[in-house]
Amino acid sequence: MGEIVETSSKRQRVCEEEAVDRIRSLPDSVLIHILSCLPTKDAIRTVLVPRFRHLCNFLTTLTFNHSWYGTGEEGCKDFLDYVRRVLLDHQNGTIDKFALKVDVNFLYSKKVENANDDIDDGYIVDYEDLYLAGFEERKASEVDSWIHFAMRKNVKVLDLDFLVYGEPKPDASYRLPSVVFREKQLKTVKIYGGYITEPYVIDTVEFLLKNATVLEKLEISTKKTLKHSHQAYSSRQKVELTTEQRVEFSQQLLSLPRASPRAVIHIS
C-alpha cells in the first residue's frame, strides 16, 4: 500500500514538473499575454522566477489599486513609489489597458494657494494641514504623470477610479490632463469618483467625443457632480446636483455629437 502511494506521489510530481516545463517553453509573447491577465502586483512577483524576470517589463495591461498599501501617509508613499518604479521599468511600446484606483483628497490643493493670504489676513495657519496640502498636490502631479505615461503608450482602455476621502469642498476636484481628451486611439474610457463641476464635465466630454474616432464606450459617474456656483464657492459649501439636475445633466451628455458612430455612453 505504501509503495502505491509513493508511486502516485512521484507521478504527480513528474506531471507538475512537466507542466512547469511546458509553461517555461512557451514563447515570450504568450507568457506576456498570460501575465497581463493577472493583477499587476501578482504579475510583478514572478520576477523571482528566472524565466519571467524580464517579461514583467512588457505587460500590456497595468492595474494599480491604492488599497494594496492601505491608508495613511506611509501607505500612500509606498503606493506612489511602487507605481513609479513599475512605470519606469516598463519597456513595451504600447499598452492595451491602464486602470488606476487611488485615494484622493484634493481639497487640500486650495490650502496651498491660499496659505499666504491667510497669514496676511491674520489667521493662524495649521502647518500640519499645509504639509498635507503639499503632499496631496504632489500626489495629483504624480497621477497626472501616470496618465501621460498611458497616453504615450497609446493606451486603448483608460479606467480611472478616484476615491475621495475627507470632507469635500466645491474646490475638491481633479481635472484630468487635457491630453486624455485629444487622444484618438482610445476605445474605452471609464471615470468614476472624485468631485467634478458640471460645466467642466460637459466641455471635456464633448471634446473627447469629437476627437476619439474609434471610441466604443464612455462610462462616467455623475453622482458626485457639483453645480457650479460662485456663491457656493464663497461660502465654502458643497452644492451637489439634485436628482432632476442630474437627469438634465445626463441628457446633455447623451446628446453630444460623436466622431465615432459606435460610441456608447453609460452614465451612473
From TrEMBL:
SMART domains, sorted: FBD
FBD domain span: 179-268
Residue ranges of the TM segments: none
Coiled coil region boundaries: none
InterPro entries: F-box-like_dom_sf, F-box_dom, FBD, FBL13/AtMIF1-like
Protein name: FBD domain-containing protein
Source organism per UniProt: Corchorus capsularis
Organism taxonomic ancestry: Eukaryota, Viridiplantae, Streptophyta, Embryophyta, Tracheophyta
